[in-house]
Amino acid sequence: MPQLAYFLLYVVVRLFALLPFFVLYLLSDILYLIVYKLIGYRKKVVRKNLKHSFPSFSQQQLQKIEKEFYHHFCDLFVETIKLSSMSTETIKQRFSVTNMEVVEKLFAQGKSCISLSGHYGNWEWSAAYGLYIKPPAKALFLYKQVKNQAFDKLIQTLRQRFSVECIEKDFALRKMLQYKKQGVATFTGFVADQTPTARNIHYWTQFMNQDTPVFDGAERIARNMSYALLYIDVRKIKRGFYELTLIPMSDDVSATTEFEMTEQYVRLLEQTIQRNPSYYLWTHRRWKHKRTQPTTSNIE
Known about the structure:
Elements: H1 2-17, H2 21-39, H3 43-53, H4 59-82, H5 88-94, E1 95-97, H6 101-108, E2 113-117, E3 138-143, H7 149-159, E4 165-168, H8 172-181, E5 186-191, E6 204-207, E7 210-213, H9 217-225, E8 228-238, E9 241-250, H10 260-275
Helix pairs in contact: 1-7, 2-4, 3-4
């Protein structure tokens, strides 16, 4: 049954993906009216997140960000569908990398690297960074499996169209160790602003003016495996066009203090969001955990 559901889902997505961009964006505009105006999908969550993230903003400013976010959110939906039919040339034109030489230099030094990004811009298209990784190096993309098997398989099919290998987060370390033993350099992408489960919270900080638990797994893996850390800064140039810039964080994480790189990542992500808040995923319940007691590993 999951296989049949996946097949039917893929056929529907593939048919819609054959539509040109201008038609898909027209559908996105209609979807915006339904999702935002009619249904009000997670509108309370979005308003709460924005209000707490930008306490000094006026109601008019917050409303402007809210509307622009929902327009972008609907664009994300049709852009993800379009992945199934986009050519290599098209995705590279619409999602460009400005400074891939940063990674090439690390590979030349015999170093693998981990990139940190957030749910900003179009994180589904960001899997296309695999097109910029020259063999024999490998591009890996970590993901969290969703409950619906058909939908999960569809998303991985779309992501892996452009030379990236998707790895479920629970198997990430095993796969990275495997490539390291084989002497294969890897570029591994972490979308690291996920909310950690309560039992996996090791670090709290202030993020967007709020007390926030932060996923620190990327830093720990980079430290233990002697990998370099990079931050992916994404800019939305215009509708359907994004630009990715790699910002070096550390090529020797072992020389940094515990949680230093995690804190640096949070600050860089904040800068990206504050530059244009409309392109962040405000529907996510990012601040559902509350700190119950202080720990020694916190930045106040």
